[in-house]
Every structure is written in C-alpha cells, then in structure tokens.
Design brief:
Elements: H1 2-20, H2 22-25, E1 38-40, E2 54-60, H3 66-73, H4 76-81, E3 85-91, H5 94-103, E4 108-111, H6 113-122, E5 128-137, E6 139-143, E7 158-161, H7 167-178, E8 193-196, H8 202-208, E9 213-217, H9 220-226, E10 230-234, E11 245-252, H10 253-258, H11 260-279, H12 281-296, H13 302-310, E12 312-314, H14 320-332, H15 348-356
Parallel strand pairs: 2-3, 2-4, 7-8, 7-9
Antiparallel strand pairs: 1-3, 4-11, 5-11, 5-12, 6-9, 6-10
Helix pairs in contact: 3-11, 3-12, 5-6, 7-14, 9-13, 11-12, 11-15
Length: 370
C-alpha cells in the first residue's frame, strides 16, 4: 500500500508540473529541435526594399500552414516585398514559435490559436497581434475500427492528442465532457484516457496498440488512415458552417508598429497565395509538398497528401469568433484561466488589402485593437 501511495504521489506531482508548465507548452506539435533560419535572397526581385532590410518569417512544415508553404515556394511574398529579404525559420511547436516572436527572433509567424491566445495572455496583451487568417479544418478523430466502431465506444479507450493543452487537446477534452465523460485535464486519466503524443510518434503508437485512436491535425490523421484507421469524426462537423480557425498569421506588436508596410506586403502575399490555392488546388498542393520536402528532406506520399489537402480550407478570414470559442473551451476544460483577449486582433492592414482586391472586410468579433 505504501508503494501504491508513492506511485500515486508521483503521478500527482507530474500532474502539478504539467499544469505549471501548461501556458508554456500549449501549441501544435512537439518540442523537437527547430530548423535553423534560412535567408531567401532578394536578388532578381523587382522594386526597392521596404522600411526593413529583412523580414523574419516563422512557420511549420505542415499542410495546415499551406499559405506560408505555397507563398514561399511560389515567391509570392518576395514579389510583394521587393528588395526586402525574407529570412525563414521552420518550427515544430507553437510554444517555441511564440518564444521566438516574443524574443524578437522572428517578426511574423503562422501559428495556431492556442499558442497565440497564451502568448497574448501571458504578455498582458503586449506581445503580438493576429493580423490575418490562414486555414480552417484539417482535424479529425481517427480510430482503430477493430476496437472502436462508433462514438459510443470511446469509454475505456486511449485517444492521442499532440500535446497537453494544444488546440486539438482542448477540442477533445471539450468534446468528451459534452458526451458525459470525465477526464482529468492534467493527467489525461478518466473515462477516456487522453494520451499526449508527439504527432511524429503517433503512427507508431497506433500500430503498436499503445493508443486506440487520435484527435489530430493533418497530415497525421491521413497517415493513420493509411495505416488502417478510420475517420470517426471530422471536427468541422462540430462548428457552425463547418469552419474553425487552425492557423493564424501573427506579428509582434513592435514590428507591426515599426514596419506596417512590410506587414502589409506579407499580407498581400498571403492573400495571393490563398487565391492561388483556391484557383489551382492541384498545382498548389504540389508546391506545398515541394516546400515540405525542401524543409524536411521528405515528401508526403499521395495516399497521405491527397486526402489531407482536401480537408483543409485556406482563407484570409481569421474566424475570430471561433478563436473566442476555443479560448472558452480551454477555460471550461480547466486548462486556462479566463484570458482577456481584447486587442488580440488588428485586421486593419488585411482589410485594406481585401478592399484593394474588391473584397469585403472581415470581422474581429469585438476583439480588435483600439
């Protein structure tokens, strides 16, 4: 019994440490080493440089960051930036991207909603602004069909999420609570075991039987389907109009104040990239995969790339109302104290770009900078 109590105490200690580190760990992916910065030469570009010599852009080599992948691969950002050079850095996790933004190591980043919320809240509203949208969807609950035939079979099963407190982790906890399942948010123990597993490890965990399914973004979901898993639920079905933010364009407030012309140019490139993706989805898919291969040394196989790409919607609207809802879900799950998100958005430059293109403005859900 003494040994049992000791083990229980150890588990409790781990849970406490997990909660203590939560605000620095919320985000996509893992804490694997990030790829060193690379500079894209501005040689051959047309036009003078803008107010900054260089803009440092961070993103993930992940399909949900397709706007950045395609925009870089096609030279759409560089076209708008003229003689201002682009310095890129590839991240594997939202927390490290936010840390880089806060430290001034990058100026603009493609980042998921949970790390953006946490980065803004932890800085007292002084670190960043969300200046544009990028992607919606691309998140699924995929399961072993031999163990889980329907949503009623989740009790007693082990479901993976990418990281404690990340966007998919919050979504799963919120969904399970809505179905009456009780789960401790820190340890993941409960009626359904929530197992926090790096997306790179999840396929092996699935094939070994360590997990029975996963609530994950693309392309991890399609990787699991290629291994025999089935899609039990597409998160789009849980949101009004099937839309919810999964990737935003975020900029440091310092850089936005000093170089609004550079931020506007990047936003023009992002809008152009999303328009190209919409008009030429197959060519854009190949461009995104080429950029992933360049960044990681490995392309995605067609059985993964094709369904993953189809499940993501690339758009300029940051879907601000859904970010507010995601924050509320995290608070309800016990993973976040109620944050003050007033001012997290500044969509002035995005709406200027959209107006120039003859398109309507997008709303900030009352969370815009004043």
């Amino acid at each position: 019994m003494r040994r049992g109590l000791g083990r229980a105490a150890a588990r409790a200690a781990v849970a406490v440490l997990a909660i203590a580190g939560l605000l620095s760990s919320c985000g996509y992916g893992s804490r694997a080493h990030d790829r060193a910065p690379a500079v894209l030469p501005a040689a051959g570009t047309v036009g003078p440089k803008l107010s900054a010599d260089t803009v440092r852009i961070g993103y993930f080599a992940n399909l949900t960051h397709g706007t950045a992948l395609v925009g870089l691969q096609k030279g759409l950002f560089q076209k708008e930036l003229g003689g201002t050079a682009i310095r890129t850095q590839v991240f594997n996790a939202g927390p490290s991207a936010i840390e880089a933004l806060n430290a001034g190591a990058i100026d603009i980043g493609w980042i998921g909603p949970s790390p953006a919320i946490n980065g803004y809240a932890r800085s007292g509203g002084k670190a960043l602004r969300i200046v544009g949208g990028s992607a919606s969807g691309g998140v699924k609950l995929v399961v072993n069909p031999a163990k889980i035939a329907s949503l009623d079979d989740l009790r007693g099963k082990r479901i993976a999420t990418p990281q404690l407190g990340n966007t998919q982790d919050v979504a799963l906890l919120h969904y399970l609570a809505g179905r009456g399942h009780r789960v401790d948010p820190a340890s993941g123990a409960g009626d359904v075991a929530v197992v926090r597993t790096d997306n790179k490890v999840t396929p092996n965990a699935y094939t070994s039987g360590a997990v029975d399914g996963a609530w994950v973004p693309e392309p991890t979901a399609s990787r699991l389907v290629a291994l025999g898993a089935k899609v039990l639920l597409d998160e789009r079905s849980l949101w009004p109009d099937g839309r919810f933010v999964i990737t935003n364009i975020v900029v440091s407030q310092r850089f936005l104040a000093a170089h609004p012309d550079v931020v506007e140019a990047v936003l023009r490139g992002a809008v152009a990239a999303n328009a190209y993706i919409g008009a030429e989805p197959e060519r854009a898919k190949a461009d995104a995969d080429a950029r992933i291969r360049q960044d990681t040394g490995k392309a995605l196989p067609p059985e993964v790339l094709d369904p993953a790409w189809r499940s993501i919607e690339f758009l300029d609207d940051p879907l601000a109302g859904t970010l507010r809802a995601e924050a509320a879900h995290a608070v309800a799950a016990g993973l976040l104290e109620s944050p003050d998100l007033a001012g997290i958005y500044d969509l002035t430059l995005l709406n200027k770009v959209l107006k120039a293109a003859g398109r309507p403005a997008v709303p900030d859900a009352g969370l815009g900078a004043r």
